[in-house]
Amino acid sequence: MSTYTIPHVIERTASGTERTADVFSRLLSDRIVCIGTPIDDGVANTVIAQVLHLENDAPDQPIQLYVNCEGGDAQAVLAVHDALAYVRCDVAVTCIGQVVAAPTILLAAGTPGLRAILPHARVVLHPLEASGRGAVPDLILAAEEVERVRRSLEALLAEHTGQSLDRVRHDLERERVLDAEATVAYGIADRVLVRRPAAGRR
Fold this sequence. Notes:
This protein has 202 residues and is of the alpha/beta class. The protein has a domain at 8-128 and 174-192: 2-enoyl-CoA Hydratase, Chain A, domain 1, CATH 3.90.226. It is built from seven helices and nine strands. It has helices spanning 23-29, 41-57, 74-86, 104-108, 136-161, 165-171, 180-186; strands spanning 8-12, 18-22, 32-35, 63-70, 91-100, 115-117, 122-125, 176-178, 191-192. The strands form two sheets. Strands 3, 4, 5, 6, 7, 8 and 9 form a seven-stranded mixed beta sheet that branches. A two-stranded antiparallel sheet has the order 1-2. Helix 2 runs parallel beside helix 3 (74-86) and helix 5 packs across helix 6.
């Protein structure tokens, strides 16, 4: 995970006092969640907690999820996916930069009509691979688990995009890079978003 200084913002309250918050907390107050690193268990738990909090706070209001994510642990990604499906809120997902490998399903899983990708972003379909060391029986079990997760990811991508399962399986056999227009054509996103709509418009 990248290490960088998290910026803070200062805002003035209704009473005239000033308060400081890190930028992610400030965005959360506006129902915006950002994923900007590969997804491990820690990142997944943080995102899930934010999503559950926002649903509890206002279940009739949409959640805005921005994703710029280079891979991660597939099981952690599935946990985030299930949380997005679980909550009652609409979830608008926007890809900024890139989405690589398993996190692709998070973009695809956004509420239909609310999935966007910026014009110079890309989506990378990438095969799930097994790796590890140990006794042969352990390696066999690890390979079987990778196959199970891979089948889950394939089924979800087919469900969210409308592509056939056979095509998704074929496309995930090798790395495939989709630009913004190709991502929309594939069904992973609904539109290429050049500029955010004005308030009150979608």
